[in-house]
Amino acid sequence: MNIAGSIVLVTGTSRGIGRNFVMAAIDKGAAKVYASARDTGGVTDLFKAFGGKVVPIQLDVTKPEQVAAAAQKCQDVNLLINNAGANGGVGALSAKNMSAARNEMEVNYFGVQSMCRAFAPILKKNGGGAIINILSLVSRVNIPMLGSYCASKAAAWSLTQAVRAELAAQGTLVVGVFPGAVDTDMAKGMDLPKLNPMDVAKMALDAAASGTEDVDAGEMAQGIAAGVMNLNFKAVEKEFAAYLPQS
Ligand SMILES: NC(=O)c1ccc[n+]([C@@H]2O[C@H](COP(=O)([O-])OP(=O)(O)OC[C@H]3O[C@@H](n4cnc5c(N)ncnc54)[C@H](OP(=O)(O)O)[C@@H]3O)[C@@H](O)[C@H]2O)c1
User: Fold this and answer.
1) Atom of ligand 1 nearest to the CA of 61
2) Spelled out in words, what is the top-level CATH class assigned to the domain 7-241?
3) What is the tens place of the pLDDT at every residue in 47-92?
4) Domain-by-domain residue ranges, the chain?
5) Which of 186, 194, 224 to mutate to test the pocket of ligand 1 (most atoms within 8 A of CB)?
6) Is the pTM above the cut of 0.90?
7) Mutate to test the pocket of ligand 1, among 108, 177, 182 (most ligand atoms within 8 A of CB)
8) HEC string of the chain?
């Protein structure tokens, strides 16, 4: 996947890693970036900064009619970046109700599936291209203080494997990115070392450029991946369970 000259669509560009994806893709020579957001007012400055190269489009990934409209409008895309995400910051049982869990699944799982389904034929038509799914280190193991969010990101990882297999025949590369904590609104209040969102965006684009399928971004994510792969999974599970507040 050559980022220079590519036509990119990024979901969730109003803030955080998504905004940085827009800037990083332009920096790496993308010809056009569709900066999608629920409220395009949040990307006006990107449009102004990069002129015709950044095209704002309205897109709530949980709304099928908006996904269909985006696919209709963005027929030239050859790199889809599923970045939009929601994290209610609650435990699976300690949450007052299931509304956060349902929203997390809608955005982090069904939203990604819906975008992959809508754009797979477009990527095929444009030579194969690539999809980058922003997962998380918590796709690999649950941190119960964010229990339902982790479940949705684990589902998104499983989906990534399925989509990768289904799209192999059309030559679409599917990259899964597993960052540790990143310095954005989502990780506000988390007392952990945090990755710079621009570094995460650049790592993900470099992975697409080099044909790398899985990226554990940052030391924490690499440690977790190593723990899981070395079959120390039980130890990692127990370590994360210990973060639950003790009553
Ligand atoms: N921050 C971390 O520590 C961390 C670590 C690992 C993985 N991630 C993942 O990285 C991705 C980006 O997160 P971030 O850290 O940049 O978080 P963020 O600053 O909270 O940004 C989340 C973005 O997703 C958008 N969004 C939420 N619901 C949406 C929907 N229904 N349709 C379209 N867009 C929607 C938000 O738009 P609005 O402004 O309209 O709300 C916002 O642009 C997510 O997939 C997240 O799970 C984050």
Assistant:
1) 32
2) alpha beta
3) 999 988 999 999 999 999 999 999 999 999 999 999 999 999 999 9
4) 7-241
5) 186
6) yes
7) 182
8) CCCCCCEEEECCCCCHHHHHHHHHHHHCCCCEEEEEECCHHHHHHHHHHHHHHEEEEECCCCCHHHHHHHHHHCCCCCEEEECCCCCCCCCCCCCCCCHHHHHHHHHHHHHHHHHHHHHHHHHHHCCCCEEEEECCHHHCCCCHHHHHHHHHHHHHHHHHHHHHHHHHHHCCEEEEEEECCECCHHHCCCCCCCECHHHHHHHHHHHHHHCCCEEEECHHHHHHHHHHHCCCHHHHHHHHHCCCCCC
